[in-house]
């Protein structure tokens, strides 16, 4: 059994997130997507239509970064910008048939990555890990002015 001191919590969380990003990058390359593009595609498919400002909020990145990301995704045929019904100044980002078709494959790849990450953990340990991480997010969000983004997203 691995024994870890509690003062290594931050290092472990950081390393786990970094390694997950690397694994997602590798799996995303199979579809021609960077991890940032993969994340945007998932948000757009789940939202079905969103402003760039909303996407920036969900992805927790600057609006200019979302604009550039949407530009690249639009050029690749993954998303389209369309007019808002009531506000002509606003453009909505919507998924294309290409992204809708790729979504299930990307979701399956994510499940594979998560299964790899939790290899060796039984169902009870997996649930304990998920519950503990959700509590950490809740604790750290308590002083935030906004609700954590994962709580705002519709569940697929």
Automatic annotation (TrEMBL):
<dbReference type="GO" id="GO:0003677">
    <property type="term" value="F:DNA binding"/>
</dbReference>
<dbReference type="InterPro" id="IPR000835">
    <property type="entry name" value="HTH_MarR-typ"/>
</dbReference>
<dbReference type="InterPro" id="IPR036388">
    <property type="entry name" value="WH-like_DNA-bd_sf"/>
</dbReference>
<keyword id="KW-0805">Transcription regulation</keyword>
<dbReference type="Pfam" id="PF12802">
    <property type="entry name" value="MarR_2"/>
</dbReference>
<feature type="domain" description="HTH marR-type">
    <location>
        <begin position="6"/>
        <end position="138"/>
    </location>
</feature>
<dbReference type="InterPro" id="IPR023187">
    <property type="entry name" value="Tscrpt_reg_MarR-type_CS"/>
</dbReference>
<dbReference type="GO" id="GO:0003700">
    <property type="term" value="F:DNA-binding transcription factor activity"/>
</dbReference>
<protein>
    <submittedName>
        <fullName>MarR family transcriptional regulator</fullName>
    </submittedName>
</protein>
<keyword id="KW-0804">Transcription</keyword>
<dbReference type="InterPro" id="IPR036390">
    <property type="entry name" value="WH_DNA-bd_sf"/>
</dbReference>
<keyword id="KW-0238">DNA-binding</keyword>
